[in-house]
Amino acid sequence: MSSSSSSNPLAAWDGIASDWNNQITAKGNKYFHRLQVPILTQFLVSHLFASPRCLDLATGNGLVARWLIDHGASSVVAVDGSKEMIRIAQSLNPADPSYEGKITFSKVDVTNAQEMETLTKDGKFDVVVCNMAIMDIERLDVLADSLKSLLAPSGIFVVTVLHPVFFTSIHTREVTVRYNPVTGEEETMFSKTISGYLSVPPTKGIAVSEQKVKQTYFHRPMNELFGEFFKVGMVMDGMEEAAFTKEDYNEKRVQSNCNYTQLPAILGFRMRFP
């Protein structure tokens, strides 16, 4: 995200960092455990056995950085464009010998080429992760280009993002009731109508219900999302779409995304250089 943008998305994240952390928590919320962790595990677990050096882009409160250490990473460089997010992440770093010296935090804007270059001073990374942040980043070209110098020859890049078809598109959520013609029982049907997908301007929204300032979402159709990384020569070797299940049903908020079990809320993918 570029702090020079008139919308100043980084400043917005400084303003909501505390609210975001209070709801996501140091251990993660439902979205993390039910949707993100299965994707991270599938794409990363075989690599983490080798005790890789990892880079966690847009670390937020350090949730994924700690997860990487817990699952075998030898070290993690965790960065975020928000100074307040970095402060929170540092405060949550466990005072535990198993973490000592393994996670380093710093403020880095992923759309600033000079700042991204500083990340290579101690060598390349075996794993680069960007968990649930691509939709908050104003431009991806600098990030994509930086991966050429950030990734080790056999390194991987893993991303999770709000699903561009079913989440950041222009859509309406619908809840309808019908009687099943076979059983005669009443059924609640959950669906979404997509009215804008290929061209959606940056939109204001909220990440957590208590935040006082809205942040900017940057929607990208899949060809644009993947295309930035294809341009620099990367190939994709894995993609997953994650949806909630019936076990996540939210009776108090019938319109909750947890209830749309046939429509994925999150898209995950893994890339590398051939």
TrEMBL record:
Molecular function GO terms recorded: methyltransferase activity
Matching Pfam families: Methyltransf_23
GO biological process, one term: methylation
Superkingdom in the source lineage: Eukaryota
InterPro entries: SAM-dependent_MTases_sf
Keyword Ion transport tagged: no
UniProt keyword annotations, A-Z: Methyltransferase, Transferase
Protein name in UniProt: S-adenosyl-L-methionine-dependent methyltransferase
